[in-house]
Amino acid sequence: MSGDQNNSVPLRVDGVVKRFGAVTAVGGVSFEIQPGACFGLLGPNGAGKSTLIRSIVGRVRPDAGNVRIFGHPVNSAAARADLGWVPQELAVYPLLTCRENLEAFGKYQGLHGKTLDGAIAWCLEWAALEDRAGSPVKTLSGGMKRRVNMAAGLIHRPRLVLLDEPTVGVDPQSRNRIFEMVEALRSDGTTIIYTTHYMEEAERLCDWIAIIDHGQIIAQGTKETLVAQSFGSRSSVTMHFGATRVDLAAWAAARGGTAEDSVVLCSVEKPAEIADLLEAASREGLEVLDVTLQRPNLESVFLALTGKELRA
Amino acid sequence: MIGAILQTSFRALRRDRGAFVMSFILPIGFFTIFGFVFGSMRGSSTPRVTVLVVDEDHSDTSRALVRGLLREPSLDAMTHARATKENSSPADYTAATAEAAVRSGDAPAALIIPAGFGANPIAFGPGGQRATFQILHDSADPVAAQVVAGMLQKTVMTSLPATMATMGSQYFDREIGGLTPEQRKQMELGLARLRQQQQQDAPASAGGQQGQAAVSSADDQSGMVAVHVRDVVGEKKKSPMISYYAAGVGVMFLMFTASAAGGSLLDESESGALDRVLSARVTMTTLLAGKLIYCALLAFAQLTLMFLWAALVFHLDFFSHIPGFMVMTAITSFAVASFGMLLASVARTRGQLGAFSTLIILTMSALGGSMFPKFIMSDTMIKVGYFTFNSWAIEGYQKIFWRDEPIRSLGPEAAVLVTAGVVLFLLARWFARKWEYS
Description:
The complex is a heterodimer. By secondary structure, chain A is of the alpha/beta class. Chain A is 37% helix and 27% strand. Chain A has two domains: 3-222, 3-Layer(aba) Sandwich (Rossmann fold), CATH 3.40.50; 235-295, 2-Layer Sandwich (Alpha-Beta Plaits). In chain A, the strands form three sheets. In chain A, strands 6-7-8-3-9-10 form a six-stranded mixed β-sheet. A four-stranded antiparallel β-sheet of chain A has the order 2-1-4-5. Chain A has a four-stranded antiparallel β-sheet with strand order 12-13-11-14. The longest helix of chain A is centred in the middle third of the chain and has 16 residues, at 172-187. Chain A starts with a helix and ends in a 6-residue tail after the last helix. Chain B folds into two domains: 48-233, no CATH class; 238-436, no CATH class. In chain B, strand 5 and strand 6 form a beta hairpin. Chain B has a six-stranded mixed β-sheet with strand order 2-1-3-4-6-5, sandwiched between helices. In chain B, helix 8 runs antiparallel to helix 11 (284-314), helix 8 (242-262) runs parallel beside helix 12 (322-346) and helix 13 (350-368) crosses helix 15. The relative contact order of chain B is 0.11. By secondary structure, chain B is an alpha/beta fold. Chain A binds chain B through residues 20, 51, 54, 57-61, 77, 80-81, 83, 85, 87-94, 105, 108-110, 152-153, 156, and chain B through 271-273, 275-282, 437-438.
């Protein structure tokens, strides 16, 4: 691949391995992100997600492999200028005002003078914090602190932004505000890496999703692709029955499903097949209390692939 | 219920190493230091007063007195400077060289045995013909002159038995009317023995009769020998210890400030701000250098305020010594700021930093003279104190404010503090690698 082609790829992770003693946190991860994409990185706790993120931002030195940002090695001046990192923690100075924080992080990124003033003004507007620009961060609400935290990572207008769980601990209204900020970035053509423990965020914001577990990317693709890879086109049906002497486990097994207590889980190719299930139940004299049809989603994919709930 | 509370509290204490250190090791460490400083005052390692002895009489009597002073356990008497590689046999002190030595801080006092002492050594009671001794004194050490004067009276009594007897006999002849020939013959025989003993340097009795009360004023004519005390350093200054404690207390709190300011690195590490800063275009060396300069400026401002306050409230002559003050404050601030950086980079948590910095700073301050003056410390303790910033900083400020020495005299202090600052900063940088990469 030529240098020009390399420079057009916002992020290329190639065979990254990181070990801590006997523990392999990241075991040979490779992927790349296309320009303008919003790349969701999902994984249960302890999957190696944080180590991978810290490798991308240059805070962890991989034992093998490399990370390139727009073709430049991590920690090069060019890579640092192109990458904006919004850490999960509120990594700002609590005693400084919003404006002072943005000024500090802008200077750390090498901005000065009118460029810095313009960047601060853009960040305050983007984060809807203009009216709180002079307030010390510690006096702000949780949602506002999150927005300052995000703005500080984008003060130098990077082309690639890594948002590490930006909505942790914020109320639904603030979360929506943050979604709007992320969508505004996307519409500007910024490439985004987004990690979250909230599946609905990934479904709403990300057009490409990678699932990491045990230090490996175990699946990646669009939401639809991932669902199709895991479940095909079938939907799950949950049936609740009243008290009965019929062997529900055998009844469910005969229809490719499972039973636990008075609940049977099956799958159907088409919704119309539910009528067949209801008729079969009626023939056996089973009392159907409730029937639910559910299309598989990312949560189902995550559960199926990792065996864990995302927020567990 | 109370048992559960106790159990929880003790478990928490056991796992909080900082608090554990503060609770047990710090008091014991401090007690030990105070024990060394004050506990030794009655023993053989009693802090001795250094006194330079100048014999202007050169008589047998004055030589016997010098020998007695050299044997006196409470004095570190010297008739000449210590031999060095460059000068293996230094000349005896004269009044002028002894005064210069006191002025430069080599000794807190010098004793001048006047010409004519041998002819009229002592007198009983006030009045009477006798030579007047001079004590040249650095009043920064308020006890030295009194100790020297007292020990002089004692040494005269214990080291000059023949002189005492002879003068007693003369007093007897003059006041009572003299002895019979038989009595005089007996007394001469006794005096001959005493003269022989005086010439043979009979050891002085350390536990013998104490001399008369030491001088309490500049002139004391009430003892067997007359003493005149003259302050040759700080004679026009109002309070000898103000600059000492402005420096001593200032440096101690400077170290606390530097430690706390350096601790912002730990705060930023815990909040994640440090990671974010280092992921920008800031290197660890740049970050540490920035923090060092901040700490040093803060320390500079603190010391300046401290000395201005001393000038305002205690009439310290600050404005006549500004160049020297600037030099000393700059190098002291740099060294202390580096020290703060090192503490912060070694500690893993704020709790650890608080415990270790308290332990180290209070220990250094106690040994270095920030808590009690050096003249009450033994020689060993003073030497140990040279491993502290406090000692060097105090010495430098004393040179400027007390002895009115020129800036060039600050060479040793500048060399030590600047070197220490550089070394500590390099060490801090080395320890700070833990924050660079995982």
